[in-house]
Write a structure and sequence with these properties.
Its cofactor is pyridoxal 5'-phosphate. Belongs to the class-II pyridoxal-phosphate-dependent aminotransferase family. BioF subfamily. It is a single chain. The protein contains twelve helices and 14 strands. The chain is an alpha/beta fold. The chain folds into two domains: about 140 residues, Alpha-Beta Complex (Aspartate Aminotransferase, domain 1), CATH 3.90.1150.10; about 200 residues, Type I PLP-dependent aspartate aminotransferase-like (Major domain) (Aspartate Aminotransferase, domain 2, 3-Layer(aba) Sandwich). Strands 4-10-9-8-7-5-6 form a seven-stranded mixed sheet, sandwiched between helices. It has a four-stranded mixed sheet with strand order 1-2-3-12, covered by helices on one side. A three-stranded antiparallel sheet has the order 11-14-13. α5 links the parallel β5 and β6. The longest helix has 23 residues. The radius of gyration is 21 Å and the shape is globular. About 45% of the residues are buried.
């Protein structure tokens, strides 16, 4: 209880606000009608209707009860789409990272981690036996001699969830070309770049491991871990989050299969076009017109860093009064002193909503 009181004094109390009557990006929040600018549903696929599957559960771990046809089929289709030999389906991106990294990394490896990596990546590396070095944000690792360590792993996100930036393609390619291994989390790149395949698909060589969480642009849940047949066979036998977890529901696996066809097809291409038009409109409104700086990487994530926790909460509250839902992001999600509004633009926003929100955001920033 004392720790909760301490967090309250530092403006760090969190809650899950109840929402009602969701239609697209609009819903009722604490009795107010609002439009969301904090969702990761970038393409608006999370509310697309899907015919229900004929089963809801897998019964046990897939190593105990076996694979259902839909498990094998969707893993094969996803691997082929990403250009990998094989893929393994997990219940969530967090479970995938926390399970696969300790499974793949040994004490003889070296692992280089971006300082701003997601908590699931950090936890996975901590659970591994590999020595870990922290990299300054977006800094590529320096490869050591093959005699000192057989494998140098660079673990990073293709698009960073709280900053909307990402490593340069040149740095990623240079690491692979130099003999390094790349573990690339595509949580916020999948569905958006390279026909939906993520930023890793823009590289001349595939990442060693691609993690593809499905709760953002895919509008679903679960995550694929894609790589070589040997790597995926090892993961199926040794990743504790796969071995000791009930297999992904066939209902979810079937939904993922439908979303894959949407994302990779004409519907996905049209939605990406809509998304980038809204992103460009927002950036122009705040950047070119009012000097707000954004990451060089064009992504739907726009961090408005305000510094103090109290100021971030105050701006979030004022935006809520104006009909916009934008959460204040505070430590430990972001470093101390970098509390922010994390604004996400989605295909489902209208251009009029983008303009009105941008104007209200600027007013709230000036007033707070």
């Amino acid at each position: 209880m004392e720790r909760l009181d301490d967090e309250a004094q530092r403006s760090l109390t969190r809650r899950c606000p109840p929402i009602r009557g969701r239609e697209g990006l609009a819903y009722a929040l604490d009795g107010r009608e609002v439009v969301s600018y904090c969702s990761n549903d970038y393409l608006g696929l999370s509310q697309m209707p899907i015919e229900a599957a004929d089963a809801t559960g897998s019964g046990a771990s897939r190593l105990v009860c076996g694979d259902l046809e839909v498990h094998r089929r969707v893993e094969a289709r996803f691997a082929e789409w990403l250009g990998h030999e094989d893929a393994v389906l997990f219940p969530s991106g967090f479970q995938a990272n926390a399970s696969v990294l300790p499974c793949l990394l040994s004490k003889d490896d070296r692992v280089h981690s971006d300082r701003l990596n997601h908590a699931s990546l950090i936890d996975g590396m901590r659970l591994s036996a590999a020595p870990r070095s922290l990299l300054e944000h977006l800094q590529p690792p320096k490869l050591g001699s093959r005699e000192a360590a057989p494998r140098d792993w660079w673990v990073c996100e293709s698009v960073f969830s709280m900053d909307g930036d990402g490593p340069s393609l040149g740095d990623l390619e240079g690491h692979l070309a130099g003999g390094g291994c790349l573990y690339l989390d595509e949580a916020h790149g999948l569905g958006l770049f390279a026909g939906g395949r993520g930023r890793g698909a823009l590289l001349r060589a595939r990442p060693t491991i691609t993690v593809a969480p499905l709760g953002k642009a895919f509008g679903c849940a679960g995550a694929f871990v894609a790589g070589s047949k040997v790597a995926c066979a090892w993961i199926r036998s040794h990743a504790r989050g796969f071995v000791f977890s009930t297999g992904v529901s066939p209902m979810l696996a079937a939904a993922i299969e439908v979303q894959l066809e949407r994302v990779r097809g004409p519907e996905g291409e049209a939605l990406r076009g809509q998304l980038w038009r809204k992103v460009d409109r927002f950036r122009t409104r705040l950047g070119a017109s009012h000097g707000q700086a954004f990451p060089a990487l064009r992504s739907p994530i726009h961090p408005i860093v305000v510094g103090s926790n109290a100021r971030a909460l105050a701006i979030s509250a004022r935006l809520l009064d104006a009909g916009w839902h934008v959460q204040a992001i505070r430590p430990p999600t972001v470093p101390e002193g970098s509390a922010r509004l994390r604004v996400t633009i989605c295909a489902g926003h209208s251009l009029e909503q983008v303009d009105a929100f941008a104007d209200d955001l600027l007013r709230c920033l000036e007033d707070a």
